[in-house]
Amino acid sequence: MTTLLIFVIVLFVAIAIWQMVKIFDLAQVGKSEGNNQVATDKDNKMNGYLMIGFLIFIYVITILCFIYLGDLPLMSNSASEHGPGLDNLMIITMAVIFFVQTVTQFLLHYFAYKYRGEKGKKALFYADNNTLEAIWTIIPVIVLAGLIIYGLFTWNDIMNIDVEEDDPMVIELYAQQFNWKARYGGEDNVLGQANVRLIDVGRANILGVAESDPNAQDDVIVTELHLPVNRPILFKMRSQDVLHSAYMPHFRAQMNCVPGMVTQFGFTPTVTTKEMRLNPDMQEKVQNINALRAERRAEIEESGQDLTYEFDYLLLCNKICGESHYNMQMKIIVETQEEFDAWMAEQKTFANSLN
């Protein structure tokens, strides 16, 4: 594959040099009229055929991509209540883009071939055409306005969380270079006040939670996020240092974590971790990953990593926040309410964790 890429690059460089030489020749003064001709009929005919050839090439590549890469497995494993709506918006947008790209590329290459330069042929020139300009202005406006309005309705459905009616579980996601912490509101489901100026590592107050706040006493701070299935979740997000982005791809959730302010995002998980591991698309993906790891068995074992991959939901950082950005992730486990309650009963409250 590397050899092929090198060959393609060398070929393109050679073509670029050839074209630059031709441009240099045309720019010379004192040449005969014949030598100053930009292109002959033969050149134009060849360029026309090349345009059609390139049109066929991009269509073949597109078809092959659909055959080998077009199953879009990520679109089949949405694990949140709002996920299918967001996926539907993505599919519609991609379909519109694909249709427009197909039509415009065909017209571009076909007209370049059909109306290529020929001796004695004179191009028809339009100073303006109000009908054409209206068509190619109004149609994109209508299509784009439709996509934008649909997107706004989808976004509003996701972001409009009724705290009183939905009674979401409140969880804080705390970002810092280069890890995540999660803080649950405890039995009262209310997060205690917090500020980075209150961080006291010596007392194990690593999130700057206000120790005098009564609502903070039953808060629970963890490094592994557990969520009960089919329970609305409201995330409050903070950053200790730089701009981070809380990204949970399978839940179709992403929100920036901004230093000095609190942002929020809510969703309802609908598929447990155990159920997602039984998803056929996910099982195929896991098998492919383990097959690749098997090829690098010796290298992985030397690094001390576990060779076998098992699917887990992940919280990732989707902003390049520093040199270890790639390693900033936290495991998410979606489970039944009973399993969640049992796990929560094992956790220490903030008051009990202080030194």
UniProtKB/TrEMBL annotation:
Per the UniProt entry, the Enzyme Commission number(s) are 7.1.1.9
Q: What is its main location?
A: membrane
Which compartment or compartments is the protein found in?
A: Membrane
Where's the Cytochrome oxidase subunit II transmembrane region profile domain? 66-162
* Organism domain of life: Bacteria
* Membrane topology reported for the UniProt record: Multi-pass membrane protein
Please state the span of the N-terminal signal peptide per the UniProt entry: none
Q: Which UniProt keywords apply?
A: Electron transport, Membrane, Respiratory chain, Translocase, Transmembrane, Transmembrane helix, Transport
- Transmembrane portions of the chain: 6-27, 48-69, 89-113, 134-153
Which Gene3D superfamilies does this one have? 1.10.287.90, Cupredoxins - blue copper proteins
Cytochrome oxidase subunit II copper A binding domain location is: 166-346
Q: Note the SUPFAM superfamilies from the entry.
A: Cupredoxins (SSF49503), Cytochrome c oxidase subunit II-like, transmembrane region (SSF81464)
* InterPro entries in UniProt: CcO_II, CcO_II-like_C, Cupredoxin, Cyt_c_oxidase_su2_TM_dom, Cyt_c_oxidase_su2_TM_sf
According to its UniProt record, which protein family does this protein belong to?
Belongs to the cytochrome c oxidase subunit 2 family.
This one is known as cytochrome-c oxidase
Q: Which organism is it from?
A: Winogradskyella maritima
